[in-house]
Amino acid sequence: MPVQKLPLAKAINESLRTALDTDPKVLIMGEDVGKLGGVFRVTDGLQKDFGEERVIDTPLAESGIVGTAIGLALRGYRPVVEIQFDGFVFPAYDQIVTQLAKMHARSLGKIKMPVVIRIPYGGGIGAVEHHSESPEALFAHVAGLKIVSPSNSSDAYWMMQQAIQSDDPVIFFEPKRRYWDKSEVDTEAIPGPLHTARVVREGSDITLAAYGPMVKVCVEAAAAAAEEGKSLEVLDLRSMSPIDFDAIQTSVEKTRRLVVVHEAPVFYGSGAEIAARITERCFYHLEAPVLRVGGFHAPYPPARLEEEYLPGLDRVLDAVDRSLAY
Amino acid sequence: MTVESTAARKPRRSSTKRVSAKKPQRSEPELVQLLTPEGERVEHPDYSIDLTPDELLGLYRDMVLTRRFDAEATSLQRQGELGLWASLLGQEAAQIGSARALRDDDYVFPTYREHGVAWCRGVDPTNLLGMFRGVNHGGWDPSTNNFHLYTIVIGSQTLHATGYAMGVAKDGADSAVVAYFGDGASSQGDVAESFTFSAVYNAPVVFFCQNNQWAISEPTERQTRVPLYQRAQGFGFPGVRVDGNDVLACLAVTRDALERARRGEGPTLVEAFTYRMGAHTTSDDPTKYRADEEREAWEAKDPILRLRTYLEKEGFADAAFFDGLETESESLGRRVREAVRAMPDPDQMAIFENVYADGHALVDEERAQFAAYQASFAEEGK
To answer: What are the Basic residues biased-composition ranges (chain B) (predicted)?
Structure first.
C-alpha cells in the first residue's frame, strides 16, 4: 500500500528497510541498533530481517562508529550510522569535521563519502542532560557536510532515501519529540529535491521560517494568529546546509517580514545566518528587522524548565507582534 | 604468536653477550631481530625468512632511494620550495620492510611520514610533495595504488583502516589492511577505539606502529608506561615488537601478521622499535629536547648500513651495484627537484572545487561572487 499514515520514527524505519532491500551496500551501524532496534526503536526489526552483517551493533564509541564508517565508505559501502542522542555526538565530532567532511576535497574529488549520520535531536521529551540539544549550527559551519531535518513522516521517509543516495556526507537530524506524530507517507510519490524549502501554510503578513520540531509549533502559531486576523506564512526549511534562501526570499518579498524559529541557541545559530543573508537580499523589501526565536545562551536546562527554554506558541506570537509593530 | 611468547623471548644477539638478566634497558629492548646492527644474520624461532640475493638488493635499493628522496625533500624545504617536510630519516627499514610484505590488493592507511611505504606502493614520490608545497591536500588517487591519502590528525586513520578491513571481511576477500601510526598516536582515543573495533569484529588489519621514540618533543615515556606492543594483549590480539631498523625482521614480522589477517584470525599490533634521526618536521628543533649521544647511539644501528655490511660480507653486491645505485639516487634527486619547481600553483577557482560531490548552493553562490570579484580587477586593468 503506497499511502500510509505512519509515525515519523516508523517512516524512517520503512525508509531504512527500503534502502537495505534495494542496495546491498547500505549498512546500518550504531549502539543498540540491532536486537533492541535503537533506544527509539527507529531500527526495530531491521537486524532480524537483514542480519548482523547489515545491521551492526557497535561498541560504545562514537568516534569509532564514524571513523569505521568512513573506512567502510572507502571500501564501497554506504553506512547509515546512528548517534544515540544529540549530546553524544561530540566524541565523533573530530572524525566528522576533520575527516568525513574533507575527504572528497582532499582527494581532489576521487573519493566519495556516502555516509549518513542520524542524530535524534532537540528537547521536549523530559530527558536528562545531553539528551535534548540542537547542535546543527556546529555542523552547518563545516564545509563538506550537508545538514537536513524532516518535520513530518513523508519527508522523513523521502529525505532519508535521498540522504542515503547522496554521495556527500549528510547529517540527518531527527526531531525526536515528533517521532510519534503520525502523518501520511506515499512511498511511490516523486519527492522534490532534498535541499528545497516547502511552504507549509500560505500567508501574507509575515513569514515564519522553521525546520524539524519547530515547524509544528509555527503551524499552530499561524492558526492562532489567523483567529486574530493575522496571515502567517510558514516555511519548512528542511535543510540547514545548504539553506534554500531563494524560497525564503520569495516569501519575504511577499510578506516583507521574517521570523526565524529554532530550538538551538539563537547566538551564532542558523537564525543568525538567515537573518544576515535575507537582510542582504531583501533589504528594500523588509518592513522590520528579521527576528529570531530560539534557545538561550545557556546549557539546555533540566527537564522541569524546558517548557520555558523551548520556543512555544506564545514566544513565536510575541515575535510576530514585535515584527508587526515596526 | 602471542604477547606472552614475545615477552619471554630474548634477542639472539644479546643472549650470547648478556651478562645480566636484569630488566631490559631502553636501548636494548626485547625485539625480533634477523640482522644485527653489525650486519650479522641471525635466526629467530618464530620468524624465519629466506630471501634471494636479488630480493635483498631490492630492499637495499628501496631504502637508499627513499633516503635520497627524503634528503632531497628536506633540502627543498630549506631552499623555500616546500613549506614543510616530515623526514623519515632512520625509519627506512620499518617502512620498506613492512611495505614489501604487502600484496597489491592490500590497502594502506599512512600518517604523513610514510614516504618509503608510498615508494613501495608505486606512488610517484613527486606526488607526495604537493601537500608540502601547498598546492593540494594530497595529490594522488588512493584507489590506484591502494595507498590512502596522508592523514594529518594523529591516529584518525587507524579507524578508517579498521572500517576498511571490516568491509574487506564483509566482501569475503582475503586481502589485508595496514594502519601506520606513531608512538604519539598510541595515546589517542581513536587508536584505542580502532583496537576495540578491530578485535570485536575480527577485522583483517595490521597496526604498524613506528615507535621512533619521540612525538615532537615528548618521549615515548610520556605516552605509555608499558611497552607499546603489550597494549594489544588488553584488547585481545597479539602484539610483537620488532627491531625497526632491521628490514628483514620488519618484513618477516609484517608478513606473518598479514597472513594471520588473511586467515581470518584478526588484527595484530606490530611495534617497530626505531628512531627518528631528524626533526619531527622541518619546523622542529630536536637539539632543544634530546641529547646528541642518543642520536649517535642510534646511528650505530642505521638500517641501511647494516644491510650493506651484510650484502658486502656475503658477496651479494659488488662496487658496480653500489655505484649504479648512487647514480640512480642522484637522478631521482634531480627529478624530484625539477618536478617540485615545475609544480604550478593551483587555479584560484580550485578553492571551490570538490567541496561536495553533489554540489551545494552556497558554494555555487560564493564561486560566482568570487569570480565576479576577480573579473572586476581584469576590467579595471584594461
So the answer is: 9-24
